[in-house]
Amino acid sequence: MDAHHKEGDAHKNAKSSENNFLNSLRENPWIITSLVLGLMLIVIISFGNSIFAGEASVSKSKAAGNVINFINSQGGETASLISTEKEGTLYKVTVDYMGNQIPVYTTLDGNSLIVNPISLTDAPASGSSSPSPSSSPSTSSSPSPNVPKSDKPIVELFVMSHCPYGTQMEKGILPVVDLLGNKIDFEVKFVYYAMHGKDEVNEQTRQYCIQEEQNDKYTAYLSCFLKAGNTDACLAEAKVDNSKLQSCVNATDKKFDISKNFNDQSSWLSGRFPLFNTHKADNEKYGVAGSPTLVINGAQASAGRDPASLLRAVCGAFNEAPAECSQTLSSASPAPGFGEGTVAASGGAANAPGCVI
């Protein structure tokens, strides 16, 4: 895993409520911590009975050590411990990450991480118009209200080819693309910077070219690639014309200065991430900042990463939804990264993790 995870541009008080934090991801420079918060948000899948126990299974120092070790194992910046305290049936571990104090929570056995725990006792009364600041948004079952409608929705998914959360959404949306077929215009596009080294830069150039010149083979290639990241095997399986592909790769490299930007570290974003400009204009047009970013009919859309949620988001952008929109797709979220597993829901689109700086 590389330094992948978190986004944001500028300011605001890191001491504001976590709800405000989640709602202003794009405005805060320390959102690089989404790497940390995002990975935790997946909830590492094995809640033991100790989450409800009144007694701690491990000491505060042991639980805090588990948190720090986990964060620092992900690559990128390192975290250090500020404080640990018990809050009900959780430990609250405050860490220093890139100069910001960030609270995260772990179960009392020290095995599971939680972001933004929801208080059931502080839930708003029936009929209340505003949610409790401590509650996290849930995955919406309806399309984003800002997405315009059209007869044939244009669906653009911005990713980094090796971002585990980009691949997660790609796996979630491919069944939607297969179901709706030519009733939508679908394209995978790439974030304007890369976070996962030369392999990612090379892969994105290949995928750009397959879509440009051999688009009828792209979804077959991508479906295969998402299983294990095996480029050569998937080019063969999808029957991609390698000679035609290589010619396009060479031309694309020159057109967008891909190798030039990679080799010139002085041009890298924040001095760490090479620029990747195949879709630079669209990144700027839509305000894309990280992977994944879903754009439908020219507007950023919020959706879960499971096929059912993505189908709802896309179908909500039709003037008249086709019959396929009434079909049922899986509501299980694909696992981040390469592979075919699934994970528990991550708490909603608004606080789902991504690869961002």
Secondary structure elements and pairings:
Layout: H1 18-23, H2 34-41, H3 60-72, E1 79-87, E2 90-97, E3 100-107, E4 113-114, E5 154-159, H4 164-180, E6 185-190, H5 197-213, H6 218-228, H7 231-237, H8 242-255, H9 258-263, H10 280-286, E7 290-291, E8 293-296, E9 299-300, H11 307-315, E10 333-334, E11 342-343, E12 355-356
Parallel strand pairs: 5-6
Antiparallel strand pairs: 1-2, 2-3, 3-4, 5-8, 7-12, 8-9, 10-11
Helix pairs in contact: 4-6, 4-11, 5-8, 6-7
Q: How does this model look, in words?
A:
With 357 residues, the protein is of the alpha+beta class. It folds into two domains: 18-114, no CATH class; 154-356, Glutaredoxin (3-Layer(aba) Sandwich), CATH 3.40.30. It has eleven helices and twelve strands. The protein has helices spanning 18-23, 34-41, 60-72, 164-180, 197-213, 218-228, 231-237, 242-255, 258-263, 280-286, 307-315, and strands at residues 79-87, 90-97, 100-107, 113-114, 154-159, 185-190, 290-291, 293-296, 299-300, 333-334, 342-343, 355-356. A four-stranded antiparallel β-sheet has the order 1-2-3-4, covered by helices on one side. A hairpin with a 2-residue loop joins strand 2 (90-97) and strand 3 (100-107).
